[in-house]
């Protein structure tokens, strides 16, 4: 299995299995990607932009089931509106997760119900913006005494970065291979 390792991510096991849904919404105006802004009080990744998702639970039948369950729990996205079309390479985070991004097409209308403990808001940047390499920025930060690099894609006041941006860059690379 191909995987992407976040710079500074642990290379030893065990990593906690997790999955996210990369929901591509079929809007009349064009394809968008549904992203969440996490609430500011959370212990992990507070205030960050992310895909709906989380750790795999014992009752989940694989990463697709985890991604669909988490999307329903976090934003109320009904599985009946979701058509899974593939997976991106596993992404290993510096916080100890092995994340499987599950790519899906989503059919509106969306009757979202946000889990207000985890999700402050949702927004939908155009897929065309996110897939344009001109919008893929490499940034650096010193963290815990080491220089770390990460992807970022600022969009209309939102700062899409880290694992979320890296997964979008991975999606771009996969789509570019198909051209």
UniProtKB/TrEMBL annotation:
Keyword Metal-binding attributed: yes
Keyword hit for Chaperone: no
Domain Nudix hydrolase, first and last residues per copy: 14-146
Family matches, as PROSITE patterns: NUDIX
Classification via InterPro entries: CoAse (IPR045121), NUDIX_hydrolase-like_dom_sf (IPR015797), NUDIX_hydrolase_dom (IPR000086)
Cofactor dependency: Mg(2+); Mn(2+)
Classification via PANTHER family: MITOCHONDRIAL COENZYME A DIPHOSPHATASE NUDT8, NUDIX HYDROLASE
Protein name as it appears in the record: 8-oxo-dGTP pyrophosphatase MutT (NUDIX family)
Species name: Sulfurisoma sediminicola
